[in-house]
Amino acid sequence: MENLVSVLILSQLVFSIIGIVYFYNNIKSQKGTRKTITLESKKEMDKLKKMRSIQLTPPLSEKTRPQDFSEIIGQEKGVRALRAALCGPNPQHVIIYGPPGVGKTAAARLILEECLKDEKSPFLTEAPFIEMDATILQFDERSIADPLIGSVHDPIYQGSGTLGQAGIPQPKIGAVTKAHGGILFIDEIGELHNLQMNKLLKVLEDRTVFLNSAYYSKEEENMPRYIQDIFNNGLPADFRLIGATTRRPEEIPPALRSRCAEIFFKSLSPSEVVIISKNAIKRAGFEAEKEAIDLISKYSTNGRDTVNIIQTAVSICALDNREIITSEDIEEVIENGKYSPNVTKKISKNSNIGIVNGLGVSGANGMILEIEAIASPCESGKIGKLNITGIIDEEELNSGIGKIKRKSNVRSSLENVVTVLNQHLGINTYDYDLHVNFPGGMPVDGPSAGIAMFCAIFSCISKKEVTSTVAMTGEVSIKGKVLPVGGVFEKIEAAKEAGVTKVFVPKENYQKLFEKFDIEIIYINNVFELINELFSEKNIITEPQINFGI
User: Which of 538, 539, 543 is nearest to 528 (CA)?
Assistant: First the structure.
């Protein structure tokens, strides 16, 4: 019996010693691990500090970044519209359209600061501005991670921590919740994945993010109260969205467009590029010849390209120990960068038969469309042909029931013109082979070129010249009325920039706003008024041959 007790005591002693040794080694190992981690952390922190101590000179684009709205050149209308949409008691969601480098992002970054100046604004002083880029906004379709909307870190995933070990799902907030009470800016919003876009639309509608997890249970006693609240009531997401895009409006989902005010930023005019060039050169600490600045304006239509050209030219000057940028420097940059010249129309002050300046609009930019026509008498006994070039004359569209073909709007508009000439002005166009051309392949697919095509054909057949200092826009109906069209402000702006002195506009497009332009604007109801105004000194027509019903 005594031997058994001795054995038990000895065994207990051995196990105690083993336990002590185990715990001692464990503690020693932990201390060693902590020491290793501390040393590794210090080593990495030293590396990080060293990396942060190394700084290159800031790029010129950073030096020239607008600090207030007055420095966003050429977008006065867009900036005013952005202020109206967001700086008030009822701010709206906004989509900003426009080409790259014209100030969309800069305007978005400045708008919250502007809103806070308005006492009626609902934005608080601590309102956040969260910026995302849709082109790099990665997410997991299984909802494991979604930096935009938010996600749930379920217990089964690595790194779920103490809560995960207890079987508790952990909500992870996304940008829409981080932006709560402020502004969420999504650059290139048109690049969002369809699934993300649909989720975003739901958040805009509910102003709340609802998350789901198979691991969440209301009956779970250990579930923290705040997690219960999130799953039951959702995460707050009451913000205002600003989306910027280089895409066309028709490429953006209609459901998103219907929830947003749409604002258009335009390409910069040569005179606006000159202003940006001078500012950038000054901030770079250099000077430039006037010819050099003028050359930049011929190859750039946005601030980003302008600054890039100047920065390279500045580097060339620095290598040569010069402080003045010459036109040769800019030519070298343009040649090496393979820049293409801008298509800027400047009218020449002369008169021609069959050549008329029409007015078009692309995005937020107006443009001059030189429309030319030829009327060749056809052979006796034959019916003249109608030909149109320089545009897409017919296009094929996909529909839910298959492919359909349709004529372009310009072709339809030209047929209206021919009908008016035949039926109401007594001109038999079938005696002529008519050819209408849009030189340069301009992006035209609207009816607003109607009156310009009308004048070009009328000029050819009547052998009367049209002065190049005149431009026009308007749709022609088969009754000869001149109907209203869109983008008239931008069109008049483009006409003024090109040197046009007189513009014909549909009377129904009249706006008091147009009076700001130093250009003669003539409002017309029908083609008879157009002919008499344009050829009044030539006595083309003394009486209308049509009842316009007005």
Answer: 543
Alpha-helical (H) ranges within 65-185 are 76-86, 104-115, 161-165, 175-178
What percentage of the chain reaches a pLDDT higher than 90?
Answer: 45
pTM of the model: 0.76
- At residue 160, the pLDDT reads 61
Cα angle 63, 67, 71 (rounded to 5 degrees) comes to: 90
**The pair of three-digit structure tokens given for residue 470, joined into one six-digit string:** 């005149």
Asked if 63 and 310 count as a contact pair (C-beta separation under 8 A), the reply is: no
> Phi/psi zone of residue 129: left (φ > 0), alpha (ψ -120 to 50 degrees), beta?
beta
**If you search the block for the tokens 């100047």, which residue do you land on?**
310
Q: Say what the pLDDT of residue 225 is.
A: 86
Looking at residue 459, its pLDDT comes to 92
- What pLDDT, on a 0 to 100 scale, did the predictor assign at position 543? 43
Rounded Cα distance between 106 and 114, Å, is 12
- Phi then psi dihedrals of residue 218, to 5 deg: -65, -30
| Contacts with 157 (C-beta within 8 Å, 6 or more apart), sequence order | 144, 164
Query: Catalytic: which of 151, 269, 448, 459?
Result: 448
According to DSSP, the β-strands at 324-325 and 287-288 are parallel
pLDDT confidence of residue 455? 93
How far is it, in rounded angstroms, from Cα 7 to Cα 252? 85
Report d(CA 471, CA 503) in Å as an integer: 5
Residue 130 to residue 115: CA distance in whole angstroms: 15
For residue 459, report the phi and psi dihedrals to the nearest 5 degrees: -65, -40
More confident position, 21 or 258: 258
- What does the chain come to in residues? 550
Considering only CA atoms, which of 357, 476, 503 is closest in space to residue 421?
476
pLDDT in tens, 252-280: 999 999 999 999 998 888 889 999 999 99
**pLDDT for the residue 212:** 84
pLDDT, averaged across the chain: 85
- pLDDT band of residue 548 (cuts 50, 70, 90) is very low
Q: For position 540, what pLDDT does the model report? A: 45
Contacts of 512 (CB under 8 A, 6+ apart): none
Strand partners, 185: 131, 242
Distance separating alpha carbons of residues 106 and 340, to the nearest angstrom: 25
Please report the pLDDT score of residue 401 as a whole number: 54
Cβ atoms of residues 309 and 317 within 8 Å: no
Contacts of 53 (CB under 8 A, 6+ apart): none
- Number of helices (H) and strands (E) in the chain: give both, helices first: 17, 24
**What is the identity of the amino acid at 62?**
E
**Looking at this protein, which amino acid is placed at residue 291?**
E
Q: Is 448 a catalytic residue?
A: yes
Least confident of 75-89, 145-159, 477-491, 495-509: 145-159
Which residues have CB under 8 Å from 218's CB, separation 6+?
228, 232
Helix (H, G, I), strand (E, B) or coil at 474: coil
Backbone φ, ψ for residue 33 (5° rounding): -65, -45
Expressed in angstroms, the distance from the first to the final Cα of the chain is 129
Cβ neighbours around 206 below 10 Å, total: 12
Catalytic-labelled residue, pool 178, 266, 345, 491: 491
Predicted local confidence at residue 40, as pLDDT: 79
